[in-house]
Specification:
Helices cover 55% and strands 12% of the residues. The protein has 202 residues and is α/β, with parallel strands linked by helices. The structure holds cytidine-5'-monophosphate.
Length: 202
């Protein structure tokens, strides 16, 4: 039996951590759909046409070790505004969502466009300064040279582009449960998400 959990939200709100924990908790498979756009963005930075890059994406592209770089995040949000790029990635995401045994997909348009029929939808958010602080710490731990202001600026730019685009903009589905993690630690955020999903499982 399939059961789809859609988790959307802006950059660094905690979607990835929550999605992995929720998938573990329920024994569901997890797909970080941002990786698809990051892989297309990375291929564009390599010189490929973004639509062609999306149409010929293969598993090795998703295993690249540069996908978390800030330049790739910006490139991802640029290619993500191209309708043909999004269209090329739809079938893969929907097939993943309907797999037997349950699936968690996290991204920007899962509850609105990719899986409007998802049984559980969450929109995970937090204030932009809290999100930038978390992302800054993550990057600093990895040894990436940057500043808090630079991270905050890039994040605001990316969120603005993701929210303003015509194709599948970042926004909560009407029936999504909003989880604001600004004042929560990881355990509280995961517990809130698990409870919301349990409520939909009946
Ligand atoms: O989630 P992550 O930060 O890895 O996503 C990178 C970029 O990919 C986002 O800024 C957004 O532009 C794009 N994206 C998207 N739709 C998704 C997932 C990611 O447009 N479902």
């Amino acid at each position: 039996m399939s059961f789809t959990v859609a988790i959307d939200g802006p950059a660094a709100a905690g979607k990835g951590t929550i999605s992995r924990a929720v998938a573990d908790h329920f024994g569901f498979a997890h797909l970080d759909t941002g990786l698809l756009y990051r892989a297309v963005g990375a291929r564009m930075l390599d010189g490929l046409d973004p639509v062609q890059a999306a149409e010929t994406l293969d598993p090795a592209d998703l295993a690249r070790d540069d996908l978390r770089a800030p330049a790739v995040a910006q490139a991802a949000s640029k290619v993500a505004a191209i309708a043909q790029v999004r269209a090329a990635l739809v079938d893969f995401q929907r097939a993943f969502a309907s797999r037997a045994g349950g699936a968690v997909l996290d991204g920007r348009d899962i509850g609105t466009v990719i899986c409007p029929e998802a049984q559980a939808k969450l929109f995970v958010t937090a204030s932009d300064t809290v999100r930038a602080e978390r992302r800054y710490r993550e990057l600093a731990e990895k040894g990436v040279q940057t500043t808090f202001d630079e991270v905050l600026g890039e994040m605001r730019e990316r969120d603005a582009r993701d929210s303003a685009r015509a194709a599948a903009p970042l926004k909560p589905a009407q029936d999504a449960v909003i989880v604001d993690t600004s004042q929560m630690d990881i355990d509280q955020a995961v517990a809130t998400a698990v409870a919301a999903i349990e409520a939909r499982r009946g």
